[in-house]
Design brief:
single chain, alpha+beta, Glutamine Phosphoribosylpyrophosphate, subunit 1, domain 1, Rossmann fold, 6-stranded antiparallel beta sheet, globular
């Protein structure tokens, strides 16, 4: 896990060493353990190292193959590197280090671009071929690790983060109003495209590679599509759960490979609890050859005292069950209130301030922990959000005419959100009630047993739009679904690959790497992902539960109060509280600023008026809707400020 950067002058000018170093050092937070460079004529590669496997100097990058033809700079982890190393040894390759970096390089030499299918892990890497004078970039299947690039016909440059490009000569810090408007209207959509918030920078999408040869523009190619790798699952839920259990535990096992301390970020929810309990279950069974971390049994728990976000009581159940050492991190906005602009510069995104994870990863680094195993992907893989039973309700009512299925999904929804809050804010709920409003509304209410308050709430109009008239937002991407693929899986597939999860992975990469901590996610093991998308939607939503197959798979591994827990909180912030109190000065200062009022992207005057009215009337819901616009303004300001300092 590191920061990577590179510059190629296509007009054969030599790369300036000072510029390459400045470019690379903007990523020091990603790799605080050292730096390295390969500079030769028109090519320059940079690397900031976070030492996890073979932390000796032998593992430094950029690294070359024994013949010096290929050079690699790489960010990520290949968890099956031990098995690949054995395969490559049998093919005649020899190794000088104990790193996965050297395994990637040997795999590229052996299999070319086909090596990508061999890897089980997360990565963004660049390999320079000195003989062919060509560059190959690759990004992992699901986009866990970031990779950005810019190309103007004379220069090609790449880096792990957007902010690095501010250090390049001639690069202007101009924002793409089209992209910013898309983010404000549809958060998460941008991450699955090649668009970025800054003009002139592209993102290499997940599951894509890029080849650059002298005299030719860069060529991108999609190398991975999950739908191409589905396989028929067992028919019985018990058999499905048994296979899921084996895959999940092996995903945990290979992600515990580390030469430095690792821990877990434990919320008390089902997914993070499953990871810690899975680690505990397999730790006593693994052999020395597995190279598992010796220091691994700490759990870092975010607490939100006095708010609905606090799940520490559930986390304590898991801690007692596993015997882990718990470190509780109290989340208070005051901890970084004076650093929010710097936070946004590190975060480089217009989304909510995920303060809990940010402070948890900081606490990890302060405690000497470098790797965290987290539960990312479980919700989008196994239908963990309220939107999914609502989707199933919609299908049952509008297409299958199956009120029994609709009522079953409603029971799941009510158990997830006993106060009806999440259900009440769902777009699907609004769609259902509009569709059945009129003569059929009494029937709908009877079927779903909706309370009058909930019924009124899900008929409310959506949030106001304050965007100015600018080009249409960037449309979301998707794959053509195979015939007969059920609607629950279609919804999950889109969220997993093209909207919700890509944004979450981007956010948590920045949150963790701001403190030099690597995040590993067993639910993102490609074997488990392909298997899960092969399962029918009924295996995920059924018998009164979300994530049904996971709950069945971990009987006897998870404590029962967690395995059977139905409520859903998530790793967010108590924004409804914060906007009325701690964030009030920042919100008012921002919406009254000249830059905010004169914006060509949003209607600053209208937003200011709405904010003033919201504070007079105590309307926290409206202020929460304004918050992304405030973040957008602070984000733009923070980038412009840091650009002037470089």
């Amino acid at each position: 896990m590191c920061g990577i950067a590179g510059i190629i002058h296509l007009d054969h000018r030599p790369v300036d060493g000072d510029e390459l170093r400045q470019f690379t050092r903007t990523l020091t937070h990603r790799g605080p353990d050292g730096e390295g460079y390969h500079l030769r004529g028109c090519i320059g590669l940079g690397h900031r190292r976070l030492a996890i496997l073979d932390p000796s100097d032998a593992g430094r990058q950029p690294m070359s193959d024994p013949g010096g033809r290929y050079w690699i700079t790489y960010n990520g982890e290949i968890y099956n590197f031990i098995e690949l190393r054995q395969e490559l040894l049998a093919l005649g390759h020899r190794f000088q280090t104990e790193t996965d970096t050297e395994v990637i390089l040997a795999s590229f030499v052996q299999w070319g671009e086909g090596c990508q299918f061999k890897f089980n892990g997360m990565w963004a890497f660049a390999i320079w071929d000195e003989t062919q004078r060509s560059l190959f970039l690759s990004r992992d299947r699901f986009g866990v690790k970031p990779l950005h690039y810019c190309y103007d016909g004379r220069r090609f440059a790449f880096a792990s983060e957007m902010k690095a490009f501010l250090a390049l000569a001639g690069f202007s810090c101009e924002f793409d109003s089209h992209a910013i408007a898309t983010t404000l209207q549809s958060p998460g959509v941008l991450e699955a495209t090649d668009h970025c918030l800054l003009h002139g920078i592209n993102r290499l999408p997940a599951g894509h590679s890029l080849t650059l040869s002298h005299g030719k523009p860069p060529v991108t190619r999609r190398w991975w599509r999950t739908l191409d790798h589905l396989r028929p699952p067992p028919a019985r839920l018990a058999d499905q759960a048994a296979q899921f259990r084996d895959l999940f535990l092996d995903a945990c096992r290979i992600r515990m490979r580390s030469d430095v301390p690792l821990a877990t970020s434990l919320s008390g929810g089902l997914d993070s609890s499953a990871v810690l309990c899975g680690m505990t279950h397999i730790r006593g069974q693994a052999g020395r050859a597995d190279r598992l971390a010796r220091d691994w049994h700490r759990a870092f728990v975010a607490t939100y005292p006095g708010t609905f976000q606090d799940e520490s009581a559930y986390a304590k159940i898991v801690v007692e069950h596993t015997g882990a050492t718990a470190i509780y991190v109290e989340i208070n906005l005051g901890a970084i209130a004076d650093e929010l602009d710097d936070y946004l510069y590190r975060y480089e995104e217009i989304q909510d301030v995920h303060l809990g994870p940010y402070l948890v990863y900081k606490a990890m680094r302060d405690a000497g922990v470098v790797v965290s195993l987290d539960g990312h992907g479980g919700d989008e893989l196994l239908a963990g959000y309220a939107a999914y039973p609502l989707e199933a309700m919609r299908t049952a009512l509008l297409h299958r005419l199956d009120p029994k299925r609709a009522c079953a999904m409603n029971r799941i929804l009510q158990a997830m959100t006993p106060d009806n809050s999440a259900a009440g804010q769902s777009n699907w709920g609004a769609h259902l009630c509009r569709r059945f409003y009129g003569p059929a509304r009494r029937t709908l209410r009877n079927w779903l047993q909706l309370s009058p308050a909930l019924f009124r709430r899900i008929r409310q109009a959506g949030p106001p739009t304050w965007l100015e008239e600018i080009p249409l937002p960037i449309p979301p991407l998707t794959d053509a679904m195979p015939p007969g693929y059920d609607t629950v899986n279609q919804h999950l597939y889109r969220d997993f690959h093209y909207s919700v999860l890509p944004a979450i992975l981007r956010n948590f990469d920045r949150l963790s790497m701001s403190h030099g901590v690597e995040v590993r996610a067993p639910f993102l093991d490609w074997r488990l992902v392909c298997y899960s998308f092969s399962l029918p939607g009924e295996s995920k939503l059924g018998n009164g539960y979300t994530k049904q197959v996971l709950r069945e798979a971990l009987r006897g591994i998870l404590p029962e109060p967690i395995r059977t827990r139905t409520t859903k909180v998530g790793f967010g912030n108590p924004l409804f509280i914060w906007v009325m109190d701690a964030l009030r000065p920042m919100i008012l200062e921002t919406v009254h600023s000249r830059m905010f009022l004169d914006s060509a992207i949003w209607n600053g005057q209208a937003i200011r008026t709405d904010v003033e009215r919201a504070y007079r009337n105590g309307n926290a819901a409206l202020l929460v809707r304004v918050w992304p616009y405030v973040l957008a303004a602070r984000f733009i300001h923070s980038f412009q400020h840091h650009r002037c300092q470089l």
